[in-house]
Amino acid sequence: xxxxxxxxxxxxxxHTARLRDVERHDNATPDRRESAAEHSWHLALVRxxxxxxxxxxxxxxxxxxxxxxxxxxxxLVEIDTGxxxxxxxxxxxxxxxxxxxxxxxxxxxxxxxxAAEFPDLWHEYExxxxxxxxxxxxxxxxxxxxxxxxxxxxxxxxPAGAEALDRLQLPRVGVRGTLTALYRRIREQAxxxxxxxxEE
Length: 200
Hints:
This protein has 200 residues and is mainly alpha-helical. It has helices at 6-17, 36-49, 51-58, 64-73, 78-81, 92-108, 114-127, 131-151, 162-173, 177-192; strands at residues 23-29, 32-35.
């Protein structure tokens, strides 16, 4: 395998920096949208904060380093594809194909062993085939549910009444009791503050 040179490393660093430019549908503050980079950072931090609880609930050791890597790189494909809303009516198969094509092209161009490590991590996350990936995906789904009430954004801009939100969130956050309890607290606070759209 060819050793990466300064140009390879620069290209990788410069490309990943562009995750700051990917705007999500959730706010970071009451006045501006969150970037995918901010989301990835917060996902990694929350994942770390909850690690002890997840291990206690699982009754086993979980690979924290692998999960932190998944958190930090899981949305890099969105530099090229953008970040469609989970509520959008778009073709999910088409989105998956587009992201797979980007992953092959971008991750394959990474220097040294990263060209194999990043695709492995991304596929593990997407396929949810391990306890680690399922937990990262659960926290990933919890994060926007948290940010909308925190920023006062609410859910009046999408068809997301409380029951609709449950249908979207619970399949992922339900993998652990800790995540489910956090989600239910977030949902309760949002309802108390009138931040849901009408179900009608």
